[in-house]
Amino acid sequence: MATNAPWLIVGAGALGQLFAASLAQRQRVVLLGRRPTRHVIRLRKPDGTDHQIPARRESLEQWSGPESPALVILATKSHHGKTALDALASRLPPQTPLLLLQNGFLLQPRLTEQWSGPVLCASTTEAAYRPATASGMDLDPDSPTPDVIHAAAGETWIGDLADRHVTLATRVAECLADAGMKAAACQDIRHRLWRKLAINAVINPLTAIHRVRNGELASRAFRPRVAALIAEIAHIMQAEDVPPPAQGWDVFIGDVIQATANNRSSMLQDVLANRPTERDAILGPLEEAARHHGLHLPAIADLYRQTPP
Ligand SMILES: NC(=O)C1=CN([C@@H]2O[C@H](COP(=O)(O)OP(=O)(O)OC[C@H]3O[C@@H](n4cnc5c(N)ncnc54)[C@H](OP(=O)(O)O)[C@@H]3O)[C@@H](O)[C@H]2O)C=CC1
Ligand SMILES: CC(C)(CO)C(=O)C(=O)O
């Protein structure tokens, strides 16, 4: 990876702006959104302080180098990732490394197979959202409202699905850490992505269907359905050779429900803003794995049918 070449971040949403705002202070970055905007990111940090961070922002359609990027970070929702990359691909050298930030486990294996350069995947517990998206409205560019709210600092693990790019993953994680983010390379990113998927598969669809905050899933009313889902997910993870967390799946997922009790899950936010959800990236791989291993999993099948696409 060329040390001084810029990094492109594709998708100027919550995570794209958070990564750009953090990296811009240490590294050359260009944030590519669907439309051009002012060269600044208004970031509210977890401690509630507001910051205006200078950052180069351009529209993906218009970006034209001149230098080849050292890395492209794909920060769209899973269902937009391929379209966004296709729109950019003819302007990138074929060996450009990618870093995928998506939840779920759909885009990661597909792009690993299809992209000619190295494909790194991240699993992150950073939490960020765009205030404007709750109402689906664009912000007035002169408004003091932040572009992105960094709700909670987390950590980001980086690796590739075949463990062929450990040096690159280490270098990218070092750059993120240098920019103040907690990040590390790992050699079990596939397991980490499936474990995060297990959490999202229980919390996101149920909260979106019933329009409740995450903590509601710990109530008596939801307990049987949550337990049935976790049991089926544990089955699939075993079939996929994903080791269970030390505390067991119930406690692992129950702890996240408690820790994020006051959150509106990202899928609920998408439903409330009339946006497509990441159902297929989160529940699709579970359904596909169940078919592949010949498992009959009625709780997951019901959940898939009820979840808005
Ligand atoms: N937010 C978070 O805290 C976390 C998010 N993730 C994952 O990260 C991914 C991104 O999430 P998040 O940032 O919240 O999502 P957002 O919806 O906030 O951002 C996605 C951005 O991608 C843009 N986009 C879509 N298509 C294109 C395109 N063709 N060209 C350029 N830009 C495009 C959207 O543009 P427009 O604004 O026009 O719609 C939007 O700004 C998801 O997979 C999510 O699951 C993972 C962990 C935490
Ligand atoms: C962990 C959880 C469920 C927190 O809300 C999340 O990742 C999401 O909402 O997508």
Automatic annotation (TrEMBL):
E.C. code: 1.1.1.169
Keyword Oxidoreductase attached: yes
One GO term describing the cellular component: cytoplasm
Keyword NADP carried by entry: yes
Alphabetical UniProt keywords: NADP, Oxidoreductase, Pantothenate biosynthesis
Catalytic activity, reaction form: (R)-pantoate + NADP(+) = 2-dehydropantoate + NADPH + H(+)
Gene3D superfamilies registered for this protein in UniProt: N-(1-d-carboxylethyl)-l-norvaline Dehydrogenase, domain 2, NAD(P)-binding Rossmann-like Domain
Metabolic or biological pathway, per its Swiss-Prot or TrEMBL entry: Cofactor biosynthesis; (R)-pantothenate biosynthesis; (R)-pantoate from 3-methyl-2-oxobutanoate: step 2/2
Name of protein: 2-dehydropantoate 2-reductase
Originating organism: Salinicola corii
A biological process from GO: pantothenate biosynthetic process
Ranges where the Ketopantoate reductase C-terminal domain occurs: 188-305
Pfam assignment, any one: ApbA_C
Function: Catalyzes the NADPH-dependent reduction of ketopantoate into pantoic acid.
Molecular functions per Gene Ontology: 2-dehydropantoate 2-reductase activity; NADP binding
Domain of life of the organism encoding this protein: Bacteria
Family listed: Belongs to the ketopantoate reductase family.
Lineage, highest ranks first: Bacteria, Pseudomonadati, Pseudomonadota, Gammaproteobacteria, Oceanospirillales
Domain Ketopantoate reductase N-terminal residue range list: 7-161
